[in-house]
Write a structure and sequence with these properties.
Radius of gyration: 18 Å
Strand order of the largest sheet: 3-4-2-5-1-6-7
CATH class: Alpha Beta
Largest sheet: 7 strands, mixed
Oligomer: single chain
Strand content: 5-15%
Structural class: alpha/beta
Shape: globular
CATH topology: Rossmann fold
Length: about 280
């Protein structure tokens, strides 16, 4: 089992959108995937109509409190091979409550181990909170790879605190990092400044980039998966490239095609809201 956490200390960077679509994209390749919403704002939970974001019953909150097993709160997502664990705003209160408990950072890791989740899934994708907290630490502790989206210079500057936390919890550095530009192709000056700041700070960009895409901005209202909502859009093409880059970290052998007839094609949907070219 491989665990991927999408993380950033700044809201509005596309973190939840990336988590949802990386999980959906991995499932399209035939992988068994578990998507976990660790964000108390519960955006992905609401996108999937998997909870109201308020009640903790049937969510990760209940599992961490040991009121329900983790297996009992895993539910179908509506997408083939993709399962889901919902969040609720009680996760934020729980984070404060456990902050003085010894070993609180590994609570999620323990749940995953106790219930042998590794035997049931090939990948776990975690949408982490957008602020440093005990819940974010639980999202960091078990991860094999981190996707860090940058949509502004503020996001790059805030990354220092995240990276410091990564090294505190995982001092051996036994993890992969993908620093992904997100939603910057309509703001070419800002994109250039972000890249310059990343270069100054020694942050290597991922090969893939999530371009500005109107369909991605709407996908939350349509189940969350760009591959099912607009499979031939630039958003789907970019998410597919990111999924392939993630797979390369873990999956050996030649590249495979997703098990779907709706794979992003060579002719993207263009309706005036997509940006079709990258510019440095």
């Amino acid at each position: 089992m491989n665990i991927i956490t999408v993380i950033n200390a700044k809201g509005g960077c596309g973190k939840s959108t990336i988590a949802m679509n990386v999980a959906s994209g991995l499932a399209r390749y035939g992988h068994r995937v578990l998507l976990m919403d660790l964000d108390p704002q519960a955006q992905v939970t609401q996108w999937l109509a998997a909870g109201d974001g308020l009640s903790s019953e049937g969510t990760l909150v209940a599992a961490l409190l040991r009121r329900q097993t983790l297996s009992n709160v895993i539910q179908p997502s509506g997408f083939e091979r993709l399962s889901f664990v919902a969040s609720a705003d009680g996760l934020e209160d729980l984070g404060r409550e456990i902050s003085h408990t010894e070993g609180y950072q590994s609570m999620l890791t323990q749940l995953l181990a106790e219930e042998h989740i590794a035997d049931r899934f090939d990948f776990i994708v975690i949408d982490s909170p957008n602020q440093i907290s005990p819940i974010m630490e639980n999202a960091i502790y078990p991860a094999d790879a981190f996707i860090v989206p940058f949509e502004s210079t503020k996001a790059v500057k805030s990354y220092a605190s995240i990276y410091k936390l990564l090294l505190k919890l995982r001092p051996e550095g036994d993890f992969h990092l993908l620093h992904v530009l997100s939603n910057l192709t309509r703001l070419l000056g800002q994109r250039k400044r972000v890249l310059q700041l990343m270069s100054t700070d020694g942050i290597t960009p991922a090969r893939s980039e999530i371009r500005s895409c109107g369909w991605l901005a709407q996908v939350d209202e349509n189940g969350g998966s760009i591959f099912h909502y607009r499979p031939h859009s630039n958003g789907a093409r970019d998410m597919a490239a990111l999924v392939e880059e993630v797979r390369e970290l873990f999956v050996n052998g030649p590249s495979a095609q997703p098990e779907t007839e709706d794979a992003p094609g060579s002719a993207p949907e263009t309706d005036g809201i997509e940006v079709s070219a990258l510019s440095a």
